Amino acid sequence: MSETKVIEVAGLTKKFGDFKAVDNISFEVEKGEIFGFLGANGAGKTTAMRMLTGLSKPSSGKGKVAGFDVLKESERIKERIGYMSQKFSLYEDLTVKENIRFYGGIYGLSRQQIQTKTSHILEELNLDQVGTKLVKSLPLGWKQRLAFAVSMVHEPEIVFLDEPTGGVDPMVRRQFWEAIYQAAELGRTIFVTTHYMDEAEYCDRISIMVAGKIKALDSPDKLKDQFEAGSMDEVFLKLAR
């Protein structure tokens, strides 16, 4: 595996009976890149991400994440990545501090490391005043930012974000992307799925999935030039025809 490539996929396929949810996709992701995985709901984005994160076995094809085989070394992959699901992966009936401590323990952090991380996250997110409040009492935008911070509590090389901005207003979405940029500046690779085409503009490169296949892959500017489009929405509409 190349030192600069943290994800390598060749011919990855996932079948459910005769249906191919992910159909022979191939791509690579560079270290420190913000890589967008775009497509409409049902295009196969989440299924592909589940294979890359070790949560689902491919039907065929090959893939490596952080140097480990997606078919044979899924547990090693889970140790090296962060993952934030559409539902934010937080426990609503635990407090903010308890959620941070819980995930720190899952990822094998020491008691001292957990204490340090808890203080840092609360300060970084300006959540000091609500550290003892139940997560279910927080506004959606705060839950989103907390879930992102928790996904990186063990300082992973790669962070997978599955539709992280679904259901939040445009201002909160922009604030969340600022947090993504900050993580990328620290050298982390961000792999994000979304069906918001405007969010493609925030990525270094994007792939666009249609019916389980990758129909286009490049930087937003190059894709707009290639398809003679003024926006990513126009690119997507041309690909979806």
From TrEMBL:
Q: Which domain of life is it from?
A: Bacteria
Q: Where is the ABC transporter domain?
A: 7-236
The name under which this protein is listed is: ATP-binding cassette domain-containing protein
Its chief place of residence is membrane
**Recorded topology in the membrane:** Multi-pass membrane protein
Q: Which GO terms describe its molecular function?
A: ATP binding; ATP hydrolysis activity
**CC per GO annotation:** membrane
Which keywords are on file for this protein?
Answer: ATP-binding, Membrane, Nucleotide-binding, Transmembrane, Transmembrane helix, Transport
The listed locations are: Membrane
Cross-referenced InterPro entries:
AAA+_ATPase, ABC_transporter-like_ATP-bd, P-loop_NTPase
Is this entry keyworded Transport?
yes
For this protein's source organism, the top of the classification is:
Bacteria, Pseudomonadati, Bacteroidota, Flavobacteriia, Flavobacteriales
